[in-house]
Design brief:
The complex is a heterodimer of chains A (791) and B (247). Chain A is 53% helix and 19% strand. Chain A has 791 residues and is α+β, with helices and mostly antiparallel strands. Among the domains of chain A are: 199 residues, no CATH class; 187 residues, no CATH class; 166 residues, no CATH class. In chain A, a hairpin with a 6-residue loop joins β16 and β17. Chain A is elongated. Chain B has 247 residues and is an alpha/beta fold. Chain B has a single domain, classed as Rossmann fold, CATH 3.40.50. Chain B is 28% helix and 28% strand. Chain B contains 7 helices and 10 strands. In chain B, the strands form 2 sheets. A 6-stranded mixed sheet of chain B has the order 6-7-8-3-9-10, with helices on both faces. In chain B, β9 and β10 form a beta hairpin. Classes of the chains: A alpha+beta (791), B alpha/beta (247). At the A-B interface, α1, α8 and α11 of A face α3, β6 and α4 of B. The structure holds adenosine-5'-triphosphate (ATP) and magnesium ion (MG).
């Protein structure tokens, strides 16, 4: 090996802790980058392949009832490839030994078939055989949650009649990758399931013989798909209008697909924001460390030049050192990124009902990670390396001028009497390098900020749940009717023992328009003086629903660019399909979904339907909840019962582990930055002030007193960095929250005190660990050697 | 000035290695101009052993740095053979230093992370027809210590490594800036003996800066500098062997 390379390796070994601290920051950046992007690619690839192989439909529509002959007309819409009509129903399920409300969607499936479109993926068992009316194929996640296997029985209330169904197979479906109950926030596999049943018995049960209430279709790919998608939707809407069609949606609006797309979007944000921070910090650290090294080696550089090493050779020498540190980080980062990426993909595969996961690791991603981190590191150190390369050899032979110090601002202000000599040394040192001090503080602050992001996600979900289900939707149970039913239905609910309070509600699918913007959602009619469904404004104060107006979810108002006082056009997609003009009376803060709210009576008046209800909200005595639930299941009108609280609880149970895992990971990330910045800046301060400190020791200062000069600076930086970090963390969280915003949900920007405290704690701990290591270095401060050698 | 033109008596050839003509060097220190050299005319001959004497600040190091291509004069010309160093590009100067010059510095300037042998190898690796690093170290009497790091060597030993490093490339000229400045008399003599051996055995043109008039006795010529000018040039009739020096 070349002597110069030997020098490189030895020096790298000597500064191994510093190099490692920097490498860890790079590992974090590269790791997250590769993890997020490979997970993203994997999810895209898997979804694409799953959709393609299982003929996931392009267009979906629900309706009340239409004869099968209508399918022919749909097929004739230009641009349509395949059409499949189905019977779909929302039902109450009954799992033996499980007392919580369970609901599900039941879909018709042709005999012995996986379907024409949205084909199911059979995981075990078999398909439904002709003539076996009580056979079902069950969604695997639901079966797993209840340990159900082919051969087991499942109870279901199908159109008011209780039935025992035999599970013959377990399956997944591209239509239910994100398997979530209507109105729920998170997937809850124990309380919501999907079932497939033979068409004949299902149609018979719902009076759909020779008819359908759901249709999906694919588009002819040979024609420009995007170009005719909307025309097909319009044509279909037009056809279904007379059959109770409630609006046709494209694949991009399909619920499960939407959720997945949002998740992918978030993944992309993470893939860009976090590595930027890590690479920035790494570049800063490298700059500090390499600059210092080069300053220390001025004479070595000059000597090498005196012996004929070219500027380029010198520059490359130091660049190599940078590249070696970066390579360590990149290599470990790639490995970590791949491992985390595979782990993440598997978490996603489990979380979503994906039959398989194609782990995609594009070489471009690895190359980009390596190039970006190397590029940033080289840019960060270019100035220092260049200064080494262009150092005039004769000048470098002369010792560096003593550093210039000034009396500090504090002292000039006449406060010097309050400062001890060592404190003055600290302040002067900081003031002499204002930029470096600032960047160091900023670096530590970044660590604090990153930590806050991890706490933020959990806290935000808690807050969302609290507001949505604690303050706004305060029902214990929600009963959903099979079809709009008269107000009298509430009496029978009130008569159930243990039911304390009942309020009816009405959900009407509608398209809302303001100027050229429109959005398809539901208009909710709620009881104006009800206590179970309350609309809250941004200050969480209750909004009174006025007689003639509509209240919109804040996000919906933004989508439509509509303000209080404007006139909203509501195009009802049900019944006689009236279009009405209603003034916007207020904006409600909601984190989940987007809705429009009206007084129940006002809505019914608009619909000219009398006092119809879509369901009821119940407040119950918890002691009777199981009995109440059993009774509800027996009511023919009640299609399903949703119990929000238990659903949330079970969600927490399922994700608790992964939340813990992510908190742990982000703690590692945060402390890798904190430690990297603090340890390196302290090491450098130590090497810069070696002589000074050793001299003080010679003069009789104690180790503690000398340590104070170094660690006092560290303490000051850390204390300044924490509030700054809070600001940065708040900004980061705000940015993420804005990025994660969609009509499915909005992540509220709430940061609990715990989040602040925890982030500060991690930073403090990293500081303390660095301080201990520096303290031990100080023990080895060689007074004799330091004073003997010249600098 | 007549003396300057005379070739050194004992040199194997009379060829002029360095021709320095009208060299001045002015350092700009902010507002202030510091003249380090104020018009130097000097020839150095092939194979001679020249000593540069002068008070601190008289411009010795500045002159040596210019000869070695580490620095360029403000005015005047320095010819190495028939090449004008003052017109040379940075690249040419680098090549000049690489293939022709060996430096020995007052403070050794060894690379602390490299062993004695490796410190020499750093230079031999880029030279055209170098010695083996081991041989060079042998020549300065350090054959036994080749695997020691600078920190494990005494000052004199470090300086001898520096000399080995300077001579290992078989340079045409050897430029030494106070090679014994940090050493005691005894160790200094050992170092000077090493320089003398190289000068005699290999015929390397050697210029040595010193504060120490005693050392002047081993030179062919003694060039006195004062205040940036050559004040006097002495030619030694007889050279005293380095081993007989002491101070
Ligand atoms: N880089 C520089 N910038 C400014 N002034 C310089 C520089 N280098 C040398 N000088 C000045 O030039 C003059 C000559 O310096 P030089 O180093 O050549 O002296 P010297 O004879 O080698 O002294 P010493 O015996 O102390 O080493 C001195 O006054 C010095 O201060
Ligand atoms: Mg000098």
């Amino acid at each position: 090996m070349k002597a110069l390379d030997i020098k490189l390796w030895r020096e790298l070994w000597d500064m191994r802790m510093q190099a490692l601290a920097i490498a860890m920051v790079i590992v974090s950046g590269v790791g997250i980058f590769i993890m997020s992007l490979s997970t993203l690619d994997s999810l895209y690839e898997t979804r694409e392949s799953y959709y393609r192989e299982h003929h996931f439909a392009h267009i979906f529509a629900s309706l009340k009832r239409a004869p099968l002959s209508l399918a022919k007309r749909i097929e004739e819409i230009p641009g349509v490839d395949k059409v499949e009509t189905r019977v779909v129903a929302y039902v109450n399920l009954d799992v033996e030994g499980f007392t919580d409300p369970v609901s599900g969607h039941i879909l018709s499936l042709p005999d012995n078939s996986r379907g024409l479109l949205n084909q199911i993926y059979l995981r075990s068992g078999r398909l439904i055989e002709p003539g076996h009316d009580n056979e079902i194929v069950l969604s695997e996640e639901f079966a797993r949650a209840h340990k159900l296997r082919p051969g087991d029985k499942l109870g279901a209330t199908i159109n008011g009649r209780r039935k025992k169904l035999t599970i013959v197979g377990l399956a997944l479906s591209p239509e239910y990758i994100y398997q979530i109950a209507p109105g729920a926030m998170f997937p809850d596999y124990a309380r919501y399931g999907v079932l497939w049943m033979a068409r004949q018995p299902l149609a018979t049960a719902y009076d759909m013989d020779g008819a359908f209430n759901n249709v999906t279709l694919t588009l002819d790919r040979t024609m420009g798909r995007g170009a005719n998608e909307q025309t097909v939707i319009d044509a279909l809407d037009d056809i279904l209008k007379d059959y109770g069609g409630i609006g046709t949606i494209a694949r991009k609006d399909q619920f499960s697909n939407r959720f997945l797309s949002e998740e992918l979007k978030q993944q992309r944000t993470i893939a860009t924001v976090f590595p930027v921070i890590f690479f920035g910090v790494a570049a800063f650290l490298l700059n500090v460390v390499i600059s210092r090294l080069i300053r220390l080696q001025r004479e070595e550089i000059a000597t090498l030049k005196a012996f004929g090493y070219s500027d380029l050779a010198i520059g490359l020498h130091y660049l190599k050192l940078v590249l070696m540190i970066v390579s360590i980080g990149v290599v470990i980062g790639i490995v970590a990124g791949i491992l985390m990426g595979k782990g993440m993909s598997n978490i996603y595969m489990d979380f979503y009902s994906l039959p398989y996961m194609i782990y995609v690791l594009k070489p471009q991603v690895i190359i980009a990670a390596a190039l970006i981190s190397t590029g940033v590191a080289v840019m960060g150190t270019l100035y220092a390396v260049n200064s080494a390369a262009s150092l005039p050899p004769a000048q470098a032979m002369r010792p560096e001028l003593p550093a210039k110090y000034h009396t500090t601002l504090v002292e000039r202000l006449g406060l010097q009497h309050w400062l001890s000599q060592p404190t003055r040394m600290i302040l002067r040192h900081i003031e002499r390098r204002p930029l470096k001090s600032l960047l160091t503080t900023l670096g530590i602050a970044m660590a604090c900020g990153i930590m806050m992001v991890s706490g933020f996600q959990e806290g935000a979900i808690n807050y969302m749940v609290d507001v949505q289900f604690g303050m706004s939707q305060r029902d214990d149970l929600m009963a959903i009717y099979t079809e709009p039913t008269s107000e009298r239905s509430l009496y029978s609910l009130r008569n159930v023992q243990g039911v304390e309070h009942v309020e009816g509600f009405r959900d009407v699918p509608a398209r809302l328009r303001f100027e050229h913007r429109s959005y398809r959602t539901a208009v909710n009619g709620v009881e104006p003086d009800g206590s179970l469904m309350r609309l809250l404004d941004t200050e969480l104060k209750r909004i009174e629903l006025p007689q003639g107006g509509v209240v919109l979810t804040d996000y919906l108002a933004e989508l439509l660019h509509i303000k209080t006082g404007n006139i909203l056009s509501i195009e009802v997609l049900e019944g006689s399909r009236p279009t009405v003009q209603v003034p916007v009376a207020g904006i409600a803060k909601q984190y989940l979904g987007v809705n429009a709210y009206m007084r129940l009576d006002a809505l019914n008046q608009l619909l000219k339907e009398g006092n119809a209800l879509s369901g009821a909200l119940l407040k119950v005595d918890q002691r009777y909840i199981r009995d109440i639930y059993r009774e509800l299941k027996d009511m023919p009108r009640v299609a399903g019962v949703v119990e929000h609280k238990s659903a949330i609880q079970s969600f927490y149970d399922t994700v608790a582990e992964s939340i813990l895992f992510f908190t742990f990971i982000s703690m590692l990330l945060g402390s890798s930055i904190a430690f990297g910045v603090i340890y390196n800046s302290m090491r450098i301060a130590l090497s810069e002030r070696n002589r000074e400190l050793a001299s003080l020791r010679v003069l009789g200062f104690e180790r503690g007193e000398v340590a104070y000069i170094l660690l006092g600076e560290l303490a000051l930086f850390t204390l300044l960095a924490i509030p700054l970090g809070f600001l940065i963390g708040y900004g980061l969280c705000a940015y993420l929250a804005s990025q994660f915003e969609s009509d499915l949900y909005r992540v509220p920007l709430v940061l609990s005190q715990d989040v602040y405290a925890f982030s500060a704690l991690v930073v403090l701990l990293s500081s303390i660990v660095s301080a201990i290591m520096i303290w031990r270095n100080l023990a080895h401060l060689d007074m004799v050697a330091v004073l003997k050698s010249k600098e | 000035m007549d003396e300057l033109q005379q070739p050194p008596r004992e040199s194997s050839s009379n060829a002029v290695v360095f021709h320095v003509h009208g060299v001045t060097k002015i350092y700009q220190m902010g507002e202030v101009q510091v003249p380090a050299l104020r018009g130097i005319d000097l020839d150095l001959y092939n194979g001679e052993f020249a000593v540069l004497l002068g008070a601190s600040g008289s411009g010795k190091s500045t002159l040596l740095n210019i000869l070695g291509g580490l620095d360029t004069p403000t005015e005047g010309h320095v010819l190495y053979g028939d090449r004008d160093l003052t017109r040379a590009s940075e690249k040419e100067l680098t090549a000049y230093r690489r293939y022709h010059v060996g430096f020995v510095f007052q403070f050794y300037n060894l690379i602390p992370s490299l062993t004695a042998r490796e410190n020499v190898a750093v230079v031999t690796e880029i030279a055209k027809s170098p010695m083996q690093p081991e041989d060079a170290l042998q020549l300065v009497g350090l054959g036994e210590r080749i695997h020691h790091f600078p920190a494990q060597l005494s000052g004199g030993e470090q300086q001898r490594v520096a000399i080995a490093r300077a001579i290992a490339k078989n340079p045409d000229v050897l430029l030494c800036d106070e090679p014994t400045g940090a050493l005691d008399s005894q160790t200094g003599v050992v170092v000077l003996q090493a320089l003398q051996r190289v000068n005699r055995q290999l015929g390397t043109t050697t210029a040595v800066i010193t504060h120490n008039a005693g050392i002047a006795q081993m030179a062919d010529r003694v060039i006195h500098l004062a205040d940036g000018r050559i004040s006097q040039v002495d030619i030694n009739e007889t050279r005293v062997d380095a081993s007989e020096l002491s101070w």
